[in-house]
């Protein structure tokens, strides 16, 4: 049974990115992005209530995660330039196997980020 999950770690403070706003979008063939879910990450930097997409909602295709990085760091009291170096991290990715497990971690600071397909 497939599902999609994420986990965000704040590498500047060495902790989960609790309180970060995240948006999940389905990207259609014509390029139009449809918002599927908006959420605030919990104390562990994860989605409350389980995966972003459960087995019933999983679908092959193109997807996008939007991580509100600048808003998160400003809420933590980090003084950022205007405009910030990193405002919103947009990760476009594909789901080829709707029965697979897709985990999209993000490691982030005000000036850098990295991601990979996790397990």
Overview of the structural elements:
The protein is mostly beta strands and 119 residues long. A 4-stranded mixed sheet has the order 2-1-7-8, with no helix packed on it. Strands 4-3-5-6 form a 4-stranded antiparallel sheet. Strand 7 and strand 8 form a beta hairpin. It is globular. The two termini are 14 Å apart. The model has no long low-confidence stretch (mean pLDDT 97).
CATH homologous superfamily - what is it?
Transthyretin/hydroxyisourate hydrolase domain
Span between termini = 14 Å
Individual helix count: 1
CATH topology: Immunoglobulin-like
List its salient traits.
119 residues; mainly beta; Immunoglobulin-like; four-stranded mixed β-sheet; four-stranded antiparallel β-sheet; 6% helix; globular
Quick structural summary:
The chain is mainly β and 119 residues long. The chain has one helix at 69-75; strands spanning 3-10, 15-16, 21-27, 33-40, 61-68, 88-95, 101-109, 112-115. The longest helix is centred in the middle third of the chain and has 7 residues, at 69-75.
